[in-house]
Write a structure and sequence with these properties.
Helix content is about 40%, strand content about 15%. It is α/β, with parallel strands linked by helices and about 280 residues long. The strands form two sheets. Strands 3-4-5-6-7-8-9-10 form an eight-stranded parallel β-sheet. InterPro entries: AKR, Aldo/ket_reductase_CS, NAD(P)_OxRdtase_dom_sf, NADP_OxRdtase_dom.
Length: about 280
């Protein structure tokens, strides 16, 4: 599978989404997130993933403005938080995010979590934003099959992206197949399990075989599984390391070894049984 940092996944509506991006969860608003994004853009990243909940949209906007890369060459994602789900609430939250980011349009807007009884009305608001041209693509995060099926039952436009906790300990195989069936691009958050996979013997053996870091082995696994991935870091050397995954390839045997690590281990809450109140 020959790919480069410039390659994209084409969403069902034709929008091109970079196959790798920078996540900015827990990056401090202001200088820290701005510096991280500028380092990422210099390294070749073109996708930046934030959320209203992260509290750093203003810093993301400052970085976009300070960058010498044209806005249309960047792919910017943010998300509507749980407290703002609902039709009017979501429309209002979007305007606040856009004001914070200082943008005229958004590339991808996601519902952050499937809060029972509220996300279908929020989805109708997402459809309006999409129809009005304010957002190029709309999708969801942390949605399982039953949540997606409920959206399908009321929607005019199906979600184009589903962002899930995804790493070798939680390969989400059933969800991946379900998303493929409905032409929904799977995107990985916490792809490195915050370093929790680096001591796995399988990963360490592949590090030795390919002369790469554990993070690079895992991110390459994402890419070869056709999953968009958004590793997070505020350290320039790590940001550079995480995008240097295009000069080697995992064999089918390598991929199967990493696949064998799947043990349904989550770092975060399970959307099926977690109360968000």
């Amino acid at each position: 599978m020959k790919v480069s940092a410039n390659d994209v996944y084409k969403l069902k509506n034709g929008v091109e989404m970079p196959i790798i991006g920078l996540g900015v969860y827990k990056a401090e608003d202001g200088g820290q997130v701005k510096d991280a994004i500028l380092a990422a853009i210099d390294a070749g990243y073109r996708h930046i993933d934030t959320a209203s909940f992260y509290g750093n949209e203003k810093g993301v906007g400052e970085a976009i403005k300070a960058s010498d890369v044209p806005r249309e060459s960047l792919f910017i994602t943010t998300k509507v938080w749980n407290d703002d789900l609902g039709y009017e609430e979501t429309l209002k939250a979007f305007e606040i995010s856009m004001d914070n980011l200082g943008l005229d349009y958004l590339d991808l807007y996601l519902i952050h979590w499937p809060i029972e009884g509220r996300y279908t009305e929020a989805w109708k608001a997402m459809e309006k934003l999409y129809a009005d041209g304010r957002v190029k693509a709309i999708g969801v995060s942390n949605f399982h099959r039953q949540h997606l099926e409920e959206v399908f039952s009321i929607c005019r436009v199906k979600p184009m992206v589903n962002q899930l906790e995804y790493h070798p300990h939680l390969a989400q195989k059933e969800m991946h197949e379900f998303c493929k069936m409905h032409d929904i691009q799977l995107e990985a958050w916490a792809p490195l399990k915050r370093g929790g996979l680096f001591e796995e013997p399988v990963i360490k053996a592949l590090v030795e075989k390919h002369g790469k870091t554990p993070a690079q082995i895992i991110l390459r696994w994402d890419i070869q599984n056709r999953v968009s991935t958004i590793p997070k870091s505020v350290t320039p050397s790590r940001i550079q390391e995480n995008i240097n995954v295009f000069d080697f390839e995992l064999s089918d045997a390598d991929m199967k070894k990493i696949d064998s690590l799947d043990s349904n281990q989550r770092m975060s809450k399970n959307p099926d049984n977690f109360s968000f109140e």
